[in-house]
Fold this sequence. Notes:
It contains ten helices and ten strands.
Amino acid sequence: MDYKSLLCILTDSELSNVPLQQGISLAASRDAHLDVLALGVDRSQTGYFYAGADALLMQEMLKRAHEEADAIHSKAEAALRNAGIQWGCDKGVAQIADLGRHVAARARFSDLVILPKPYGKDRGTELEPTLEAAIFEGQAPVLMVPDTSTPMTSPKKISIGWNESAEALVATRAALPFLKAADVVHVVVIDPPTHGPNRSDPGGLLSQFLSRHGVKVEVDVLSKTQPRVSDVLLRHAADADIDMLVMGAYGHSRFREAILGGATRNMLEHATIPVFLAH
């Protein structure tokens, strides 16, 4: 399998350039088709207006969403028109409460969804549910690209956050086109279990699986020397000069991670390199 159908969902004109250029680079290098969905988001919540709220207020918010969609669409088309790739660009408006349905409908027929970093300064509340809808309802892998990343076509050094979970295995399988082309793939195991069938060879079965696909694998067993798993993964990525990190998304419930934090949420907040996610 290769990534032949790429999808880039843009909801903020200011954050559109990096994911858009990443999508163009991948489409050009893989002879793939890039679809761009420019979404204007009505961020008002139905039922949350105070009593007697003027209908003009609701109309104004809808008008603003249409203007945002038009601005994103124009910017995307200008970049795509001279990119020399196969592409399509649609626009629409969605209320934030109904955003997931629109995202999932497009993501489920895509090989890879490319999205901006959902957390940080001046980011809309729609970015997090967009990413979650693509992963959960759309059942598609997501490539999250931070604002500072440069477009990549074939990352040479990749690390996999491996904890033997179903989510991590799904992400690894989905990332195989990247993994097979890499110079080296680090399987990173943090505090492996002291009991169980894999205690004497942590990451061994995954390494065997990957090597049979022609992936050049190294296993790095690390101690949890920092409070969060994501911190250990990011420190390893910096030390090993990693280009992309692969990990399973939301091993705990989304609600728990939203309230208490978790590896996925912390990674999405602090990553400075592209992160490949799947559930």
